[in-house]
Write a structure and sequence with these properties.
By secondary structure, the protein is an alpha/beta fold. The chain has one domain. It is 28% helix and 18% strand. It contains 7 helices and 9 strands; from the N terminus they run ααβαβββαβαββαβαβ. It has helices at residues 5-10, 16-30, 55-61, 111-121, 135-140, 162-166, 187-194; strands spanning 51-52, 65-68, 82-85, 101-103, 124-129, 146-150, 157-158, 180-185, 199-203. The strands form 3 sheets. A 5-stranded mixed β-sheet has the order 4-5-8-6-9. A two-stranded antiparallel sheet has the order 1-7. It has a two-stranded parallel ribbon with strand order 2-3. Helix 4 (111-121) links the parallel strand 4 (101-103) and strand 5 (124-129). It is globular and about 45 Å long. Mean pLDDT is 83; it is low at 1-14 and 30-48.
Amino acid sequence: MEISRLEVGKTKSISTEKVRTIIKNYCISKGVNMGKQGFSHESSKNKSVEWYTPRYIFEAIGITFDLDPCSPGKDVVPWIPAIKHLTVEDNGLMAEWNGNVWLNPPYGTNTSAWLSRLAMHKKGIALLFCRPDTNWFHKYVKSADLICLVKGRIQFVNEDFAEEYAKRKYKPKKSCGAASMLIAYGKENAKALKNSGLGLSLAVIE
């Protein structure tokens, strides 16, 4: 089941139950495992290690989010400014989303499912690899308000050093292997990204 343009970009309101049904059907059609082991949050594709968003990204954006549905846990990443953190145990993709969402989804084949959920939610910021050649980019980014092409390569925080990083005793040394982009849904989020200085900001015009 494809998530239609109407559902993503044109529907003014949509119930939580309908969102769950749409996402569930979409995931089933794509062979996505929605169980507890289905998503390795913020993980790399080739290694069983997790990489977390560094604090300078949030300091530049200047927003406290209501929800991080792809979190390893607030105690693991206390620098991520989200009021509520959902872990893999909470199955964040299928859980209820409220308010402004920070989304750094697991990188890999499930990106489309996560971004489609944010596109329907219409309020949040996603951090993704810059892949304008993909189907998910053209399906779901077109309903966003702004794209920020991040300058340089982001130095993500290795899970093994998260505790030291939280105490400001560790600085990431290795950059990720690809360029990144931030996608804003909602006017206030778009404004925050535009003023962040993190990179080149482009308004989305369909």
